[in-house]
Amino acid sequence: MQFDWMKIPYALLTLFIVINFGYLLNSFIAKIAARVGRRRGIPIWQTYIDVAKNYGLRTSITHGVMFYLGPVFRLSGGVGLLLFVPSIYGSYMFSNLSFAGDLILALYFVFFGTLGMALGAAESGHPYSAIGITRGLSQVTAAELPFALAVFSVALQYQTLSVTDIVAAQQGGILHWTLFTNPLAVVAAMLSLLGSMMRPPFDVVLAPQEIPIGPPTEYHSSYLALMQTNRALFPIAKLVIYMNLFFGGATDWPTFFLKVFLIYMWSVFVGVSFPRFRVDQSIRWFLIWAVPIGILSIVLV
Amino acid sequence: MRELYEQLKRLFPLGEYTEQRRDLAFVTVPKDHLRPLLIHLRDRERFSHLVLLTAVDWLEEGHFQLTYLMNDRAGKRDLGLRVLIPRDGAAMEGIHDLWPTAATYQRELREMFGIDFPGSPRVNEEFILEGWTGMPPYRRDFDTKKFSEENFNHRPGRATTDPATHMKEKLYPDEA
Amino acid sequence: MALYEPDRSQYPVKKPDGTLDIDLSSGKYLKLWQGPQHPGITGNMSLELTVCGDEVVDCQTHVGYLHRGFEKLMERRTYIQCFPIVCRICVPEPDFNEYCYAAAVEELSGIKSPHRADWIRTLILEMGRINSYMMYLGGHAGSLGMGVIGQWTTYVRDLMLDRFEELTGARIYHMFILPGGVRDGLPDGFEKRMEETLREIESTMKDVYEAMFCNAVFKKRAIGLGYIDPALIDPYGVTGPTARAAGVAKDVRKDFPYLVYPELDFEPVMGKDSDAFTRADVRRRDVLLSIDLIRQILAKMPHDGPLMAKIPNVLHWKVPRGETYIRAECSRGEYGYYLVADGSGYPRRVNVRGPSYTHAVALLERLIINVNIADVAGLMVSLHTYPPEIER
Amino acid sequence: MKDELKKRLVKGPDGVEFEVDPLRDYYCDARPQVEPPAVSKIVEDFFNWARAESLWILGFATGCGAIEMRPLMTPRFDAYRFGVQWRPTPRQSNLFIISGYLSTKTLKRVIRSYEQMQSPKYVMGLGSCTINGGMYWDSYNTIKRLDDYLPVDVYVAGCMPRPESLLAGFEELKRIIREGKGEGANKYAAEFDRYKANQKQVIHDWDMPDYNW
């Protein structure tokens, strides 16, 4: 297959759009959470200012090479995830660097960021980071299991490992979406989504009360700004996969924004109305509820 | 309360008795008889709740007064036991095995009054103060104002007058 | 479904003399400091935890970060000069300090505060109790990751602070109950605005009940957490809602009635399971009880009569030699002042008995063993401790 | 000095023994440096604006003033509107609110937390007790003026200051930062010896390095 060099600048354009969308969405979600608490909440551009402020700090200390690489790994996980799946179906400009086996690569990238973070935070030597990391890794493992099962179920259903093909198979009306053709897989994946979005009830990794914010305890200034960028990018990238696999993908940007926003809202609404699980409870929850549904979906396919 | 006192008096050599309220009385107890009396009160007379344990420094008379305040919830009454111990080399037997919470009080007394409770858990560790080398601060002969003036930088411009003399001059100049 | 339960007796090994054999260099244990700079700690205090895996095996509390030496400062202030500083002893609920101090001084100098002042004092104490519980409910939900409850309860607490401001002129430190009586009567229309505030609080409490106490995740984490055996209540000096949640009906308002509580109609709120969830529930129902009491007080209180008893010239206020102990039921338990007077114009010794003193040090160190690190904050908040009254 | 800060021999998991000197190994004790502002004025102005609009507060309740923090976070006052947020770790915060009196025991922790914050960092003193001791002017355990120990940018007076005055304090601090005068960290670095001498005069058991990152 001939590689098309023009795809690279186009992919970067997608990245730019998605990052800005992510920033705005993050402020918007903070505002929604504030509204639930009857507050007015932060201004919508607050996230931009925070990132600028963090890049503008004068001192930043490091605990070693891995400490610096942690956020970089994490960000590259997000970027990689986004770049290897098509954002807009049918558009040459925004189909990014997708290829035949990209689903497997995407699964890998979902996990990659957390691993990088684990290495970086362990380097910082702070006990809270270490505890946060052990919690994070065990919870992400438990949470990704149903997602992986759901993905395999979908891949079996459509007999392909290419995200583009899966999206293509879902075109032509709302009833062709995986949501309706394979509902069990979607349920399993949506439960898994709750676990990986770092919102309650599954945010014990970053919980300010239980352990002061876990892995990023020692991160500050530009490191933290990198992580904030990732925090804007990574959920969107992940939701793009969800949208493509289960909700029929998007054919233009408005549909893209709307669908991503709606899927995000699912985790936000659960998040504002529940306290958080302890990590052992959340792992049990995933093993008892989400994993069997995932297995069932594979069996049924 | 009076009957209880008479009853106890037959068993223990009790000292001065003060009835403060209908439900509150204070009794002076010799140092050696405190422990049996506490056990008796706890097991026979339902005084099961140790409200507080604290000390009063009677500097002029040369002794510390330890106050053990016992509470009987069912009988709706309180009994305070006063134990007088000399100020020099003050030490007292601990009661942390009777009430685990007493260990905290004993740690505070050790630090704030310098009263030793041998055998009480963590009694010689720092409890509230840190790096304190001087005299235990709750003793009467410790002058907190002098200490504060010597140790801390004060912001100039703060004029302090003794309110009693100030008010006397400004408000009641005629009063004796 | 049978779930795997780890064997908790394995580590650490108990030495023959009862102490734990913890060798930090073995790599099995980790020493972890929680606090003083930690959002999961109530106030300014720290816990030195030794953890094994995810479980706490040993804990030492460290207090004293807020020590100002009140008991010493009061020894060199006249009786009336002590009055403005006593409320600073416990920040979230200052009125109990004012009441206990005022009542102790009155009793020793043989003054009786007027009947109407007693009613207003009771009103203020109940308002303060609601404030304190509102802080608690928000903190407890927050410690388990539910920030929304804190937003709601702090909002209605602000409404209650408005009523305080109207009545006393201050938001946090009211300095309203002074020895001899109270400073002022109720302003015009206070009852009506109070009723509006109470309605708002009631509707918020309904929301809180639905969002917090009916929530599966909250139940899952709070039920069974920090169980206190009723047999431990007396040895550890546990009082207040914490004791009532264990089924021990300790309520100073009922047991040793003070102010106008004998004239009010109420039953202490009781629980039976003695865990964090029951304690939270007892406190929630206590808020409703306080609302009811405030309504009773406003309906029954006399509207004319003196507010201050005749007190001596404050410059020459000499209290005769004697000692007394005054207690009141604050939102955490029994709050008491032990006052010793020596016949001069200055108190000889003032000792403050805060309920947190026993709850947060001895009891917490015992309860925290074998608790998951993630639950330490929830456990600590469920005991409802305020460090300033521990170290004063 | 505490036991855990003494030099000791530690046996690693692989059986090799090595010596640990906690004061040297666990802390970096390099002196703080004066960090110059950005070369270009426009860049510095932009950063100052961003710093002013995004104040992250360290959630450290050092005294009674902390009771008014909760109302500030909640619907009535809602400081989030002004870009103020609370962070649980000193590394990520820029503004340290000393909420009231500081006992010497807390002062030690405050200094450590302050030094872990990344410059530029700001300090706000809350309540009369940070200004001149306030009610506790004769107490043996509280410091009397905060600016001897840390560079203070803004004082908010009162006992206790109302949330409104805190909001006004934030606005004042923002103005100071926007004008480029919020250089407390550099002042701390420049007059390091004076601050350290003052701190050591009060804290009698100094068992940490002079500067800990």
What's the structural blueprint in terms of helices and strands?
The complex is a heterotetramer of chains A (301), B (176), C (392) and D (213).
Chain B: H1 2-11, E1 17-21, E2 24-29, H2 34-44, E3 49-58, E4 63-72, E5 77-86, H3 102-112, H4 144-151, H5 163-170
Parallel strand pairs in B: 2-5
Antiparallel strand pairs in B: 1-2, 3-4, 4-5
Chain C: E1 13-14, E2 20-21, E3 29-34, E4 46-52, E5 55-62, H1 70-75, H2 79-86, H3 95-109, H4 115-143, H5 147-168, E6 177-178, E7 181-182, H6 190-213, H7 216-222, H8 240-245, H9 252-255, H10 276-300, E8 322-330, E9 333-341, E10 347-353, H11 355-367, H12 373-382, H13 388-391
Antiparallel strand pairs in C: 1-2, 3-4, 4-5, 6-7, 8-9, 9-10
Chain D: E1 8-11, E2 17-20, H1 22-25, H2 41-53, E3 55-58, H3 69-73, E4 84-87, E5 95-99, H4 104-116, E6 122-126, H5 128-132, E7 154-156, H6 163-178, H7 184-190, H8 192-202
Parallel strand pairs in D: 3-4, 5-6, 6-7
Antiparallel strand pairs in D: 1-2
CATH third-level topology of chain D: Rossmann fold
Radius of gyration of chain C: 22 Å
Low-confidence stretches of chain C: none
List the uncertain runs of chain D. Answer: none
Number of strands of chain C: 10
How much helicity do the residues of chain C have? 40-55%
Report the count of strand segments of chain D. Answer: 7
Strand-residue fraction of chain C?
5-15%
Q: Biggest β-sheet of chain D, characterized? A: 3 strands, parallel
**Can you list the strand order of the major beta sheet of chain C?**
3-4-5
Total of domains of chain D: 1
Provide the number of structural domains of chain C.
Answer: 1
Counting helices, strands and paired strands, the structural category of chain C is alpha+beta
- CATH classification, class level of chain C: Mainly Alpha
Q: Which two chains share the most extensive interface? A: B-C, 44 and 44 residues
So, CATH architecture of chain C?
Orthogonal Bundle
Strand-residue fraction of chain D? 5-15%
Could you characterize what this model shows?
- The complex is a heterotetramer of chains A (301), B (176), C (392) and D (213).
- Chain A has 301 residues and is mainly alpha-helical.
- Helices cover 69% and strands 0% of the residues of chain A.
- Chain A has helices spanning 7-36, 46-56, 65-83, 102-124, 127-158, 163-169, 178-181, 183-196, 221-246, 253-273, 279-300.
- The longest helix of chain A has 32 residues, at 127-158.
- The radius of gyration of chain A is 19 Å and the shape is globular.
- The relative contact order of chain A is 0.16.
- Chain B has 176 residues and is of the alpha+beta class.
- Chain B has a single domain (2-154), classed as NADH:ubiquinone oxidoreductase Nqo5 subunit (Beta Polymerase, domain 2).
- Chain B is built from 5 helices and 5 strands.
- Chain B has helices spanning 2-11, 34-44, 102-112, 144-151, 163-170; strands at residues 17-21, 24-29, 49-58, 63-72, 77-86.
- Chain B has a 5-stranded mixed sheet with strand order 1-2-5-4-3, covered by helices on one side.
- With 213 residues, chain D is of the alpha/beta class.
- Chain D has a single domain (5-202), classed as Rossmann fold (3-Layer(aba) Sandwich), CATH 3.40.50.
- Chain D has 8 helices and 7 strands; from the N terminus they run ββααβαββαβαβααα.
- Chain D has helices at 22-25, 41-53, 69-73, 104-116, 128-132, 163-178, 184-190, 192-202; strands at residues 8-11, 17-20, 55-58, 84-87, 95-99, 122-126, 154-156.
- In chain D, the strands form 3 sheets. In chain D, strands 5-6-7 form a 3-stranded parallel sheet. In chain D, strands 1-2 form a two-stranded antiparallel ribbon. A two-stranded parallel sheet of chain D has the order 3-4.
- Chains in contact: A-C, A-D, B-C, B-D, C-D.
- Chains B and C meet through strand 1, strand 3 and helix 5 of B and helix 1, strand 8, strand 9, strand 10 and helix 11 of C.
